[in-house]
Amino acid sequence: AQTVTQSQPEMSVQEAETVTLSCTYDTSESDYYLFWYKQPPSRQMILVIRQEAYKQQNATENRFSVNFQKAAKSFSLKISDSQLGDAAMYFCAYRPGGGTYKYIFGTGTRLKVLA
Amino acid sequence: GAVVSQHPSWVICKSGTSVKIECRSLDFQATTMFWYRQFPKQSLMLMATSNEGSKATYEQGVEKDKFLINHASLTLSTLTVTSAHPEDSSFYICSASRANQPQHFGDGTRLSIL
How many Cβ pairs within 8 Å bridge chains A and B? Predict the structure, then answer.
């Protein structure tokens, strides 16, 4: 069975600095998708970034980028120039390439941004 | 990005009543919708997967007679918590998806049963 592990329950970063959130997963599939979602105190789930497993190039979205290491089954999120609005819970999610499109979520990492 | 509307955002009701939560995809046709439950400071727990025009698929341990899911159209799914009790109090979130697109989430419903 697939699993997603986020080993950092909480992280802190100084405003304008860079922080990396880790995520590892376990799967025997070769075709899958990985996502990072952000959940601020409002509790809305916001898609931050996605990565298709067949793509070797790491995805980037403005200040957010991933380090996707397929062989190591690692999918970390780097946030550059951290802003106060980045403070939130961050969830890593795995989805197989076919089937029901169900996600498997990690347990989340709470990111605090210090002014 | 895609917009998913969830209503109501907060509901308080007496024990024994039934509560219906609506989830609408406003700008795309969602072939699949998902219902999650989230306890404080925890991750999302998938309750069921709903495909338009067919019966929902419930995750193990979720009572299908307690949590009724209807997906009557490509833009609307509903979750009805029947005969709700205080232990059903929680935060419920829906999401909508199609093909290989990411899931887009509603804003969630905070359910409080007195």
Answer: 44
